[in-house]
């Protein structure tokens, strides 16, 4: 299967770090994949607060943000529990919730499927397909940690939004790219978003805007 045949679900929730999910979607589109995009209502609020998105017309906001690549995005309203990705019979290669709020984390850990984000993630787990979540909160209490442990036992990959500094990030972009690159590594998608340990310094490619 080539990248062009691959479909991924990208979920953006109301945790801080909306920029991560947007950058991930950009990278998947750049790799030629189809992106099924889900944004919770709180996720839209954070897109407005953190990235200054005008969010009253959501489809238009997506087209503005992704330009001509928006044609490879399938945007699903969060309450559309009849969407393709709500069914295990619709094949996708994986789902990434980035960033993942503690609210959505709890819904996933309890299988409550109370919106399309929860349902699509539940489908990934029941079908044994890759599900990656990028939780963001600090500090975390025991319920947050227990929820993550439950999901880890289900095979969900937990990639906390924790920056590293050993590759000498200089900009916000470097920090965002590192985390997005870690997710792409799990999906086995080639990238040059950060300098790997053991590679010579100064080779970290900048994300192509
Ligand atoms: C600007 C902003 C930042 C937030 N950051 C976080 C966060 O980092 N982690 C988190 O769990 N919730 C955060 N929240 C709260 C969630 O948005 C809230 O709990 C919401 O109900 C989550 O809903 P969702 O899981 O449907 O997106 C934030 C809210 C706002 C407005």
Provide a quick synopsis of the model.
The chain has 209 residues and is α/β, with parallel strands linked by helices. It has helices at 18-30, 41-51, 58-66, 102-109, 116-127, 142-153, 172-187; strands at 7-12, 34-39, 73-75, 94-100, 131-135, 157-158. The chain is built from seven helices and six strands; from the N terminus they run βαβααββααβαβα.
Write the layout of secondary structure elements.
Blueprint: E1 7-12, H1 18-30, E2 34-39, H2 41-51, H3 58-66, E3 73-75, E4 94-100, H4 102-109, H5 116-127, E5 131-135, H6 142-153, E6 157-158, H7 172-187
Parallel strand pairs: 1-2, 1-4, 2-3, 4-5, 5-6
Helix pairs in contact: 1-7, 4-6
The structure holds flavin mononucleotide.
Explained architecture:
It is a single chain. With 209 residues, this protein is an alpha/beta fold. The protein has one domain: Rossmann fold (3-Layer(aba) Sandwich), CATH 3.40.50. Helices cover 39% and strands 14% of the residues. The protein is built from seven helices and six strands; from the N terminus they run E-H-E-H-H-E-E-H-H-E-H-E-H. The chain has helices at 18-30, 41-51, 58-66, 102-109, 116-127, 142-153, 172-187; strands at 7-12, 34-39, 73-75, 94-100, 131-135, 157-158. Strands 3-2-1-4-5-6 form a six-stranded parallel beta sheet, sandwiched between helices. Helix 1 links the parallel strand 1 and strand 2. Bound molecules: flavin mononucleotide (FMN). The site of flavin mononucleotide has 16 residues, from helix 2 and helix 4. Residues 13-16, 40, 42-43, 45-46, 49, 101-104, 136-137 line the site of flavin mononucleotide. Keywords: Flavoprotein, FMN, Lyase, Prenyltransferase, Transferase.
């Amino acid at each position: 299967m080539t990248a062009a045949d691959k479909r991924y679900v990208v979920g953006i929730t109301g945790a801080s770090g909306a920029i991560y999910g947007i950058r991930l979607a950009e990278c998947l589109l750049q790799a030629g994949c189809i992106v099924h995009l889900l944004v919770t209502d709180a996720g839209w609020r954070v897109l407005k607060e953190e990235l200054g998105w005008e969010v009253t017309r959501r489809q238009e906001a997506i087209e503005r943000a992704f330009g001509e690549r928006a044609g490879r995005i399938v945007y699903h309203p969060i309450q559309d529990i009849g969407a393709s990705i709500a069914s295990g019979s619709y094949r996708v290669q994986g789902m990434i919730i980035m960033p993942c709020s503690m609210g959505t984390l709890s819904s996933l850990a309890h299988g409550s499927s109370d919106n399309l984000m929860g349902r699509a993630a539940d489908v990934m787990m029941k079908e044994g397909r890759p599900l990656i979540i990028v939780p963001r909160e600090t500090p975390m209490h025991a319920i947050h940690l227990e929820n993550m442990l439950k999901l880890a036992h289900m095979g969900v990959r937990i990639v906390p939004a924790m920056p590293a500094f050993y590759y000498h990030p200089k900009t916000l972009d470097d920090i965002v790219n590192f985390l997005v690159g870690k997710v792409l590594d799990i999906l086995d998608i080639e990238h040059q978003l950060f300098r790997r340990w053991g590679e010579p310094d100064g080779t970290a490619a900048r994300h192509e805007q």
